[in-house]
Amino acid sequence: AAAAPLALGQRLVVNSAQPAGQPFCGEYQVQSFTRNDRPVFQKAGLPANSQAVYLLFNEAGQWAFTPHADGRADGWAFAQDSAGSPSEIKGAFTIWDGTTWAPDATLRVLDKAAVLSAGSTSTPGFSGAAVAGGAAGGPAASDMGFYGQQASAVPEPVYESVELPTPMASVGRLHWKAHWAASERCLVRWVPAPAALADKSLPSHPAVKRGVLPNGMRYVMLKNAMPPGRFEAHIELHVGSIDEEPHEQGIAHMMEHVCFLGSRKRERLIGTGSRSNALTDFQHTIYHIHSPVRLEDGRDMYIPALEALHEIAFAPEMLPHRIEKERKAVLAEMQQVNDMEYRIETWTLSGLHETNKLGSQFPIGKEEQIKAWQQKDLKAFHEKWYYPGNATLYVVGDMEEEEMLRGIKRIFEPTPARNEHAPGQAFVEPVWGSGSEDPRSLFRRQLAKKRPEQLHNFSLPMVGTGDVFTQAAAFDQASGERPWQGPIRICRNELLEGLQLNFYAKTPVRPLRTLEDIWHLTAVRILIGVLQFRIVSRYSSNHAPVQIDHSDSFREGCAVTSITINADPRDWRNALACVVQEIRAICDYGITEGEMKRYMAAMLKDVQKGVAEADSVPSEDHLNFIMTSDVFDHVVMNPEQSCVAFQEVVPHVTMEQIHVTAKWMLGFIGYYGRAAAPPTTAVVVCTPTQVYQEQDGQWVPFNITEEEILELMLSVPDKSREDALNQVDVPESLLAGKGYMEKILSDGVVDKMTAWRACSRKHDEATGITQLLLPNGAKVNYACTTNESQGTMRMLVPGGRSADTQENLGSAMVGIRTVSESGRVSDFSREQIELFAVSNTMSVHLDLNLEFAFIDATFSMTDNGLVAVLELLHLLFQEPRWELPAFVRAQQAYRAQSYAVQKSLEQSTLDRLMRLMFAEDGRVSELQVPDLNKLTLGKVRQAVAAQLRPQDLEINLVGDFAGKTHGKASAQVEGGLSTGKHHEEGGEAEAEDEEVPAAAVERRLRELDENLWKYLGSVPQSEVPKADIGRAPVISRGPELTPEARQRTAHLEDTDERAVANIGGGAPNRWGRGDVYHTECMKAKGFSWNTANSQLKDHPLYPSMCLMAVREVMNTRLFSTVRDSLGLSYDCNFELSMFDRLEAGWYTCTVSAHPSRISEAVQAAKQVVQGVRKRPISDHEVRTACRTLLRRHETDLQTNEYWISLLTHLQYDNPKDTTCVRDIERMLTSLNWRDVHNAYLTLLTDADQLFVSVSTAGPGSSYISGGAAPASVSTSMPKEVVDVN
Length: 1285
Hints:
Layout: E1 11-15, E2 26-35, E3 38-43, E4 54-57, E5 63-66, E6 77-79, E7 93-96, E8 101-104, E9 108-111, H1 112-117, H2 171-182, H3 195-198, E10 209-212, E11 218-223, E12 230-237, H4 251-261, H5 264-267, E13 275-280, E14 285-292, H6 302-314, H7 320-337, H8 340-352, H9 367-372, H10 375-385, E15 391-397, H11 401-412, E16 441-442, E17 454-455, E18 464-465, E19 468-469, E20 488-492, E21 499-507, H12 515-536, H13 539-542, E22 546-553, E23 558-567, H14 572-589, H15 593-612, H16 619-631, H17 639-649, H18 655-670, E24 682-687, E25 690-693, E26 698-701, H19 706-715, H20 721-724, H21 740-744, H22 749-760, E27 762-764, E28 769-773, E29 779-784, E30 790-798, H23 811-822, H24 830-839, E31 843-848, E32 852-860, H25 865-878, H26 884-903, H27 905-917, H28 929-933, H29 937-945, E33 954-959, H30 966-972, H31 988-994, H32 997-1015, E34 1047-1053, E35 1058-1066, H33 1076-1085, H34 1102-1125, E36 1132-1136, E37 1146-1153, H35 1158-1170, H36 1179-1196, H37 1200-1207, H38 1219-1222, H39 1224-1228, H40 1233-1240, E38 1251-1258, E39 1263-1265, E40 1282-1284
Parallel strand pairs: 11-15, 20-24, 29-33, 34-38, 39-40
Antiparallel strand pairs: 1-2, 1-9, 2-3, 3-4, 4-5, 5-6, 6-7, 7-8, 10-11, 12-14, 12-15, 13-14, 16-17, 18-19, 21-23, 21-24, 22-23, 25-26, 27-28, 28-29, 30-32, 30-33, 31-32, 34-39, 35-37, 35-38, 36-37
């Protein structure tokens, strides 16, 4: 662009008498560049990091107020006038006023010099929430109360805590309604809400207590006894990265580090069984503590925890040495987090939030600024934002509320108030700023201190109706030009393996405050479920896994509809066409009645589940739910209230309403290219620069262009109504009519089951664990808990990858994936099985690890949910479907994973370590493409059949099989929508109500045993020979190798610098037994588990508990040395493999650092790992470690997943028995330093027994050196990886 012909000092004045024009009022200064041969002006006087507002002549020939300086045809207000300068504009500006495009004849653009010469001495300003200085017309902002109402006189100071005032009407709601009206331009004609829902407010959670201290700090409390004897305390400072000035980028995150890790009072909590952490995002900084209510000696923990949070938030020391430590830690973190996943996220956010700081000002900050800050800079930021009126304390747990409230007042009230709205007056900030009628504007929490405004580019329709564009449209339709439907960003990187297409549309959050809001949310959730299923049902033919979501973003302050497509780069057109076609069909024709009822029934079961689990929801989950709800002004309800609200809404949900909601939510894709389509907020494509051609073994360039994407989006053919609404027949039972049950349930079956149960059932009173042996040899362990309303099952068989041979590496893994890819059993289609699972609220997942192949399932504890999952598992063993296309997809998926591992710095580094430690055994490392290419469908089928033999199964179940929570859930849903129960037997509930509890429990358990007998015990034993599962991997003999053969160094060509290292060595399994070489080393050392002379030494759990304590001690030492003292790494951790079956094992230590310091970090980590011999483990370290493990155990006992882990392997040939479940607490409270130090000696830590893999990333050609390198993969064209030996 040519230089502007105007003097750089020239200014304009914009004024308007209309509310819609007020946000544009103020002074504008000419810029040093032009657009379309006209000068460009930028609004002056805004805060440094506010969204820019430009006045320019755009490429459509319109003068526009816009956030974009590039001249694109997009903005907030337009004037059809070709004047050479804004002050010469004669036409009226057309502005979006929240409901329609309307002309503002009062908006004037004047030359400031002319205004001054005419005698004007004032400059027009903003009004309402957009005020940067004073307001033009009406009271000043500081004189205004809630939402523009005149505030009352300031009262005398109040020195006692006061309750929150009654909330006013939500401005967030008004903001949303403006967008709602605007969307009627998108072919959306909203169905009026039923009168019964429109004005009925949602009830608030009666147990949530709120208040405000005199200094302005808000607090929220909720009593919750899960886990018992513990509480969560989180303090949220309402400040994040978007509040930073341009020279402060990253200071909010740095402040979090310095305040949190510099707190002496937080350090005093170490060893009390407490845990703490902190996080910083765009709008929030949160410090949290999870603590016991009281210690074993009776000391209360309320005050110590609150004192720690107070010191962190309002009284940090910010000592120079701590600042330097955290500066190093933050810089190391910057290196560590910058992996490909993080980069994809930043690319996405940059596109999604191009009009505000969320797209450019990330919490991690700028390296050069982080290096420069001094103590005074941190103190200035703390003074500006860390004060009581900008903080909220959330406390949830098993606490005495009055005692906690006294503690809150005692600790926090003395902190002086700053930046008060009115001294001593309680004030609650609305989530949305007042006075905004512009649906593109988002204003954050209102404070007396001004915040920069954040404008969202919400997805709104272009100027047109239907398929006809008006003259105001930004293109020439007559000449064939196409509408602009949003930006497309293409991000390319050589380290990407797959292609990802992301489509986003942003809308304001709709606060959930009335039944009408729940009515709308129900339609959204049904739509997502239906659309996800429709697309996934086509996945088998086009490899297009898709994730669809519409949710409120806590960190971004808006609602986002997202559609993410992951595809093979060579097949992206089919994947995208599939998604566009299905979305367009749902916008055109809606959904079927069967789909609506099916997903509504699933939602009803979900809210029933919430009621049943109400007493088992952890305090942390409650707290996070309240915190996120508060951000969006949602009413916080308890599960019972939510269930009642849903019941009231369900009868009013209609197919017409869902169809309209589909147009509103999905029109940005469904109507792409039409006048009525809202433009996508962002399209972000993440693509590799090359792809691997299997046929010739070459990497070839790959490219995708914006024009190709646009052309495809506009050319996808429509589906017919018949095809779009074609329904899949969903079976109510998978076994009905097959004759299976008829054969099983022959004469005398009751006597057979009774006899079997009497002789094969074993119950352990101490643990509540029941064990069975089914007729076919399968073993069963189950436990009754009320942790969750759903049941959990894990079926496993010994084998896993350890059963592979060198000729068939990966055969079992690919075979299991093949079964999963097929998704079919017997003569049922994949779609039928998927919908059967939806209807019965169940899921089934197949996988395997080095030791076992397993099937995980969850199921409903009502409506015969267990029977449904048992039917599916019965057919999975009896009639699996082995299909060649499914095998090809599975094979291709692992090929892609193999390539992805080699392009991942972290994964490739660990894989190289495993290849060093187990050089002769490919079972331990990642699969290689040559091994995958050797496999056939027959080979993988045989490998799976040799493992999934019914007689080798161990079946573990956890759930409320005794029925203790069933009555609670059913009482809440009486009269609700029918849930489509299958196999329901009338009269059962009435009969149960008459039973005494003990008889009811016994009947339920008998039914459980009988169902396991019928559906799984009846599967005949397999005649396929059992896989060879006894070959444990053996670690390389380090002393026999050269130092070079024990270390691998690699470099990955990349644009950004990073480094990571893995250190590893031999270790025993969970029961203290190692491989052949490890056993030899222990014998040479004279090691014995009896050395510590512990009374616990004969307990089978003894080695396991000692090794877990070693892991905790090692992690503590690594953090305090490598991270805290030396500042070499942001994160380093120590892990043990802890196998259950295989007599083998290893440990790994992972450390990340800047490439220039990675060698130093590796050396420091080695010294910690080896240094235990010089500095023995102390009793204090052991007590701290055991207390941490014990608290974790107590918390995890409230989850089904943990109980499943306790049950697994109880009936296999290993030392584990029910005492290993019963005695965990006793073991952890009895260990001493001798036990743990002796366990450390089982680790192979001598210098010649350590293996090291170090990798860096950054500019320069990729290479691998040391050891025997695997097949190389180039990461940039046309260079080759250099193998240096």
